[in-house]
Prior knowledge:
The protein is an alpha+beta fold. Helices cover 30% and strands 21% of the residues. It has a 3-stranded antiparallel sheet with strand order 2-1-3.
Amino acid sequence: MTRYVILRDDGLSDAIAGQLFPSYDEAYIVLERYYADFCCSDERESYRIEAEAAAQ
């Protein structure tokens, strides 16, 4: 079963980065909520979602 991890584009760790999810959609929901808090701000971090095996 593939799990998905949220990673920061700059490689650092925080409260969101490193979280594992059983589906891509669940990880996407977390990022969608994060980005909604910033609307049009440039002060947000950039994240991506990868399959766990690819992230290692």
